[in-house]
Write a structure and sequence with these properties.
There is one protein chain. By secondary structure, the chain is α+β, with helices and mostly antiparallel strands. 25% of the residues lie in helices and 22% in strands. The termini are far apart.
Length: 461
């Protein structure tokens, strides 16, 4: 048995190496490097390369493309947590005159702002950012393609606007704010807007021949917040641990959890694929587990960061080719290999440090009509309510400090739960957003809406 901070078992390490070796060979990547995180720290690194004699280590920089968006989203959530803006604010309130100001900040984070996917021609990823010096050059004459908030439509210009928002509110460049508020506090010393040796070169691999073509590495200028960053497997492993657990130096666990929650309406194809989008994070359901993270690509490079929060396992995969290996599948497989071969060992059960007797008496079965539920006490004065059997509406509730609780998830998110007491202090029923939960199905002594037939339950003879 291993603790989270011990090395992976030899068989697990070999399975991980085999997976990336297949990915590099089948995907014809000049090089591929990967890392696995467990328990908040990197526990494995592997690499494959077409160059004999050595492979890239965890300190070699690759371009990470749209994983940059997750960093930008962290900066915006920091502004929200400081009270400098609200995610429901329209962009115009803080960054006027863009021509796209009716989009909300949350909509831009979740790609529901209705904006175009790309900036006007020429192709921004292979041309200098100096061709688009102003936001108007990024957005073009027709920035909106869809009604605001109605559908998820991935937008690189949307994250350019978020970067400009950060600059406007902070009064400093996006690059400086990112370095000061995220990179330095998390110790990401090998993450930068421009490549620093040692770094990989970007290549295109001919689709029908085993030959290479070098790709340009353009400075994206205004588009930088959407895809500029270079990083390493080691640095992204640290960032993955942050996305799983939070870090109060940068963003609390609660705010990171908010980033990981679905925030975009899913289209039919997304439902079939088990994919959606949060606030700067891609979300997918794969192999029976929920994965969050982001993929990235720019000419010459592909990248992926995948986190399985429940398993406390994450993976980073980087390659220096324009296309080839499907790194999202590789990342998911690396997580699966570790999670299945060495499943997470749960923390020991421990009793609650203290309990309020008035809350303890609420524990146990309750009935909404004829539907049986159970209320349990959880940590920090909270409670949970869930069906006794099968699926259905369930939620955890946090205490408000006045004997009531507020729902945290699902159908009851934000709804008020309170225990209604009789004049003698005994509990009559639970009120949850106007729903009456009683100790017996349709309890005649409780104020069940519509009343209860006075003759009570009966058979049919």
């Amino acid at each position: 048995m291993t603790s989270p901070h011990e090395e992976l078992l030899p068989a697990t390490r070999r399975a991980l190496l085999h997976r990336i070796a297949v990915a590099q060979a089948a995907g014809r990547a000049p090089s591929l490097t990967a890392a696995v995180v467990r328990g908040g720290r990197a526990v494995w690194h592997g690499a494959r390369t077409s160059v004999d004699g050595h492979g890239p280590d965890a300190d070699v920089q690759y371009r990470i493309g749209s994983i940059t968006k997750t960093f930008t989203a962290v900066l915006v959530l920091r502004l929200r947590d400081e009270g400098l803006l609200d995610l429901g604010d329209v962009l115009e309130k803080h960054l006027p005159g863009t021509g796209a100001g009716e989009a909300t900040i949350a909509g831009l984070l979740a790609h529901t702002g209705g904006l175009a996917a790309e900036s006007p021609a020429p192709w921004w990823e292979r041309t200098p950012g100096s061709l688009r010096p102003e936001l108007a050059d990024v957005l073009g004459e027709r920035p909106f393609l869809h009604p605001v908030g109605r559908r998820h439509h991935y937008s690189n210009p949307g994250y350019t606007l978020l970067g400009a928002l950060v600059e406007e509110v902070r009064g400093a460049s996006w690059e400086d704010v990112l370095r000061r508020e995220v990179l330095e506090p998390l110790g990401l010393t090998r993450t930068s807007t421009r490549p620093r040796p040692p770094h990989a070169g970007g290549w295109a691999v001919h689709p029908w021949a085993d030959v290479l073509l070098p790709e340009p590495a353009e400075d994206l200028g205004r588009m930088a917040p959407a895809g500029q960053l270079w990083s390493t497997a080691g640095n992204l492993a640290r960032f993955a641990a942050f996305l799983a657990h939070g870090d109060d130096k940068v963003l609390s666990a609660q705010s990171v959890r908010e980033m990981r929650a679905p925030a975009a309406p899913a289209e039919a194809a997304d439902v079939v694929d088990g994919a959606t989008y949060g606030l700067g994070l891609q979300i997918q359901h794969r192999d029976g587990r929920l994965l969050v993270g982001h993929s990235g690509s720019l000419p010459g490079f592909v990248a992926n960061l995948t986190v399985a929060v429940e398993d406390d396992v994450a993976a980073v995969v980087l390659a220096n080719c324009t296309s080839g290996p499907r790194l999202s599948a590789v990342g998911a497989d690396l997580v699966r290999i570790v999670a299945e071969a060495e499943p997470r060992i749960p923390e020991p059960w421990r009793p609650l440090p203290e309990v309020d007797p008035s809350v303890l008496e609420l524990a146990g079965p309750w009935y909404w009509g004829t539907n049986a539920f159970v209320l349990r006490l959880v940590a920090e004065g909270g409670v949970s309510l869930e069906p006794l059997a099968g699926g259905g509406r369930r939620s955890r509730f946090r205490p408000n400090g006045d004997g009531t609780w507020r729902g945290l998830e699902g159908y009851y998110a934000g709804e008020l739960l309170r225990a209604v007491r009789r004049p003698d202090g005994s509990v009559s029923h639970l009120d949850l957003g106007s729903f009456v939960f009683t100790r017996q199905p349709y309890d005649q002594d409780a104020p069940v809406p519509g009343g209860v037939d006075p003759e009570g339950w009966r058979g049919i003879g």
